Amino acid sequence: VATHRDEVLAQVSEALENELGVEPERITGPADLRADLELDSLDLVELVAVLEDRIGGKLDGPAVDGIRTVDDVIDLIIRQPS
Amino acid sequence: VSGVLVTGMGVVSPAGVGLAAFHAGQLAGHGATGVISHYDPGDDEVRIAGQVDLPDELALSRRDRLRTDRCTQLAAAAVRLALQDAVVDGVDPARVGVVIGSSMGGQSTVEENYLSYFRGGPTAFKTRAIPMSMINDPAAWTSIRYGFTGPCLAVATACASGADAIVAGYQMITCGEADVVLAGGAEAPVVRGIVSGFAKLGALSRRNAEPERASRPFSKDRDGFVIAEGAAVLVLESAAHAAARGARAHAELRGYGRSSDAHHVTMPHPSGAGAAAAITAALRGAGAEPGDVGLVNAHGTGTALNDVTEALAIRAARLGDVPVTATKSLVGHALGAAGAIEAVATVQAVTSGLVPPTANLDEVDPEIDLDVVCGASRALKGLALSNSFAFGGHNVVLAFAPVGG
């Protein structure tokens, strides 16, 4: 049974794959956005913008600056007040 | 050992990708323009263009394609081919410059982002919209990708950008600022807004029913140019540096000439005086007489005004009896890439000793008193000039000579 976390992972994976061109096999929860997925600062700005667009709300500013891994991104979305 | 040599070339054009295909395309002499497929032109007045079929092995990775406009993607392919051709491994990267001209840079990025912006408001621009669309992105991308840390810039003089970029590279080498310069142009203007804008100027052919026969420089029934995309890059190198590393050269960039019409933003001066001054200056720069010239690769756009005034200019520069050919008859007009694509064609004419025919020339305009090569290629001896004349009145003429010739 797909959990909410799985659904959010799918959402983040879709954004990484389709908007930023990250190969799907590299996308895992612990993957480091910069070191493993080779995203730069512009990619991270775009990732946050795309996800905000998908969920229809702003992601929390200070927390956005702290994201390091794919799991961090998922946590950030799950923690958002809906 | 002095002078500036062409030690590598890369070309990505509707009439061929890579030197061999492009040369074969020129000698075959068939127009390579076609029906627009980059977008649906619907019932637009102009539905034809020159488009590049970029092979997978020259395409950037999917991630890099998402980070670049097609303008930079075409430039990247031309750079890669030029570097493969020149084999410049082991060159000090601080002594390598990059100059890639473009008329308007990443226009599909501009169009897509403004469409999003008008629908979704100011936050709808993509994060990379600005760097992807800037005119210097092809040059910057090249410097970053290959780690070349010498001077890196773009030149924007509309349809003379590619030729002006080659002049800038020549100057970097002759003033001692660089040993090797990647110089050329890139353009990706097959975007609905841009094509429509050129159509509104009355500059484009409406020969939609005969796409491959629509680009008709010097022809009596020409009706405008066919817009095209493409890129070309020359590896320019000081003769001393090339000799020291034992590099083979295609040709020598013997000199150049430039002038400005100071007349009108889109129309050439009706006397052709500005263009003639640039041609004459190129001869002077190359230390040549009119009798030394075996080919003029014309700007030859296929617009009513350009071709007549260019003919006057060529005659005024005392080159009225020299064989003339127009690469745009095959490729269409790739704007800021045109001068670079035609520089490649001119160098290929010098190295092969063959002037390729001008395509689609069934009947030369009686107002044009030139020896336009058509039907079949012709033998070439001596110096070859490549003309580029641009919106804004920028006139640039490059002079190429056989190595040691």
Percent of residues in β-strands of chain A = under 5%
Cα end-to-end separation of chain B: 14 Å
Which stretches of chain B are low in confidence, meaning pLDDT under 50 for 5 or more residues running?
A: none
Q: Shape of chain A, please?
A: globular
Number of strands of chain B: 16
Distance between the termini of chain A: 22 Å
Query: What does the average pLDDT of chain A come to?
Result: 92
Gist of the model:
Chain A is mainly alpha-helical. Chain A is 57% helix and 0% strand.
Can you tell me about this structure?
The complex is a heterodimer of chains A (82) and B (405). Chain A has 82 residues and is mostly helical. Chain A contains four helices and no strands. Chain A has helices at 4-20, 41-55, 61-65, 70-79. In chain A, helix 1 crosses helix 2 and helix 1 (4-20) crosses helix 4 (70-79). The two termini of chain A are 22 Å apart. The mean pLDDT of chain A is 92. By secondary structure, chain B is of the alpha/beta class. In chain B, 33% of the residues lie in helices and 20% in strands. Chain B has 13 helices and 16 strands. In chain B, strands 1, 2, 5, 6, 7, 8, 9, 10, 11, 13, 15 and 16 form a twelve-stranded mixed sheet that branches. In chain B, strands 3-4 form a two-stranded antiparallel sheet. In chain B, strands 12-14 form a two-stranded antiparallel sheet. In chain B, strand 15 and strand 16 (394-401) form a beta hairpin. In chain B, helix 3 (70-86) packs across helix 6, helix 7 packs across helix 13 and helix 10 (273-285) crosses helix 11 (304-316). Chain B is globular and about 60 Å long. Chains A and B meet through helix 2 of A and helix 2 of B.
Layout: helices, strands, pairs:
The complex is a heterodimer of chains A (82) and B (405).
Chain A: H1 4-20, H2 41-55, H3 61-65, H4 70-79
Chain B: E1 4-13, E2 16-17, H1 19-28, E3 34-35, E4 48-49, H2 62-66, H3 70-86, E5 96-101, H4 107-120, H5 129-133, H6 137-146, E6 152-153, H7 161-174, E7 180-187, H8 192-200, E8 230-238, H9 239-244, E9 251-260, H10 273-285, E10 293-297, H11 304-316, E11 323-325, H12 328-331, H13 338-352, E12 354-355, E13 371-372, E14 378-379, E15 383-390, E16 394-401
Helix pairs in contact in B: 3-6, 7-13, 10-11
